[in-house]
Amino acid sequence: MKEKEVPQDEGLTEGRFEDVCYALDDSGNYTIVRSTGWQPKTDAMLQAWDVIHEKVEQVRKRVLSGELSPIAYFMEKNIMDVKLLSDYAGLPKRKVRKHLRPDHFDNLDDKILTCYAETFGISLEMLRNFRETLEDK
Amino acid sequence: MSKNTTIIDFKHKQAAHCENGVISNLLHHYEIKLSEPMVFGIGSGLFFSYMPFLKLNDLPVISFRPWPGKIFNRITKRLGLKIQRLKFNDQTESMDALDRNLQQGIPTGCLVGVYHLSYFPQAYRFHFNAHNIVVVGRENGEYLVSDPIMPDIERLSYHDLQRVRFAKGTVFTPQGRMYFITGISSLNNLKEAIVKGIHQVCKEMLGIPVPLFGVKGIRYLAKQMRNWPKKLGEKKASLYMGHVVRMLEEIGTGGAGFRFIYAAFLQEAARELEQPWLNDMSKEMTEAGDRWREFGVIAGRIFKNRAGQEDSYIAASEVLLDIADREEKIYRRLRQIKLS
């Protein structure tokens, strides 16, 4: 790839950095060129996020219909599974699985809820009044 | 200056890839001036593996690089550097150890997860746990971080740094791992290190007797790819395609799955070893890299427009087969390299 061919397409870096690329200058020597992005890469990353967003949306509906607890929604939103959530929250997997069910969620005390809220980076209120948060989306 | 303020005079330089970048920056700190491509080449960073029976998030494992940490291991061994590595069970202890290092003026590499890395753009924050940074100081309760992906020094709070150092995960967790240079060498074996680095890449790209690795792995992927639309259905096949492109380009491959960095390394190696034929090898590697980019464009059309479909998978597969042939020739010739 020549210096001038280094793509400068739209990227997903929010302007925080540009990709360092190695490309050939006019005399055929390798040099560092910065790139704002490359369309196929950007599209591939967007595709991966679409899959995640789709899953989150499905779980959001199931939480609102009373099938799952809000823990399931925030777990999905943080791209976690039961194992990862159990590791981050410091709770056994068996318990996390139980807390995904609305009937068990309703009985949780503040101590356990705080574990989850901290893991998800949200307030205790957001977790308690999840309907407001979830219906907004 | 309060006791909690330590700023190491560290020259931060942005790089394409985190592991090479951290090593290159650390070495520069100790007056060993090796570029990112040189670090990549001596550390034999070029690799390919395709393991369709192993799935992560329902996607087959594809990688253009060796296991995290390998490049670092190889370069320290080949250049005769002394390093110390630590791993922790206790989180507070890991932060204390880091503080002690900083107070002694030792820039310290840390392995971290990127999901909670607050300065990273949102779209890059997956649960990926093998990112490398160098901590180079502490000021007003915040840590100064040289992250090779970022253009400037970044800051992390105590809590944030601790959290990324102890990121959780299914495949690999950093467990507070940190590493730093404790003894340096004179670089008089640089030429030998370059040759060793090249030999190992050739061995791994040609010689692993399982068809999942090296050029055989590229061919295996090419052959399976043709059948993806039939076997997996359109949607999943297109996800697989996107996955290949992400592995090829996502964070810090310097373009085309490290092929361009490697071509840059071969150019430097030609000068260092005074073996001009390596310039031709560099050219051929650049061409292989260009073909990888062509592959990316064809793949991109598939997952962007959902058009073309079966024909496009065959076209993409043909490009991969051509790449495998080209690269095989390159490694076969490179394999002959000797110290002149």
Number of strands of chain A: 2
Mean pLDDT of chain A: 92
Q: N- to C-terminal separation of chain B?
A: 54 Å
The average pLDDT value of chain B, as a whole number, equals: 91
Provide the fold topology.
The complex is a heterodimer of chains A (137) and B (340).
Chain A: E1 19-24, E2 30-35, H1 39-64, H2 70-77, H3 82-89, H4 93-99, H5 102-106, H6 110-120, H7 124-128, H8 130-136
Antiparallel strand pairs in A: 1-2
Helix pairs in contact in A: 1-2, 3-4
Chain B: E1 6-7, H1 18-29, H2 36-42, E2 49-56, E3 59-63, H3 70-79, E4 82-86, H4 91-103, E5 108-112, E6 131-139, E7 142-146, E8 154-157, H5 158-165, E9 178-183, H6 190-206, H7 214-232, H8 234-249, H9 259-273, H10 277-305, H11 310-334
Antiparallel strand pairs in B: 1-6, 2-3, 4-9, 5-6, 5-9, 6-7, 7-8
Helix pairs in contact in B: 1-2, 2-9, 3-6, 6-11, 7-8, 7-11, 8-10, 9-10, 10-11
Structure characterization notes:
- The complex is a heterodimer of chains A (137) and B (340).
- With 137 residues, chain A is mainly alpha-helical.
- Chain A folds into two domains: 35 residues, no CATH class; 90 residues, 434 Repressor (Amino-terminal Domain) (Orthogonal Bundle), CATH 1.10.260.
- Chain A is 56% helix and 9% strand.
- Chain A has a two-stranded antiparallel ribbon.
- In chain A, helix 1 runs antiparallel to helix 2 and helix 3 packs across helix 4.
- The radius of gyration of chain A is 22 Å and the shape is elongated.
- The mean pLDDT of chain A is 92.
- Chain B is α+β, with helices and mostly antiparallel strands and 340 residues long.
- Chain B folds into two domains: 130 residues, Cysteine proteinases (Cathepsin B, Chain A, Alpha-Beta Complex); 145 residues, Four Helix Bundle (Hemerythrin (Met), subunit A) (Up-down Bundle).
- Chain B is 50% helix and 14% strand.
- Chain B is built from eleven helices and nine strands.
- In chain B, strands 1, 4, 5, 6, 7, 8 and 9 form a seven-stranded antiparallel beta sheet that branches.
- The chains are: A mainly alpha (137), B alpha+beta (340).
- Chains A and B meet through strand 1, helix 1 and helix 3 of A and helix 8, helix 9 and helix 10 of B.
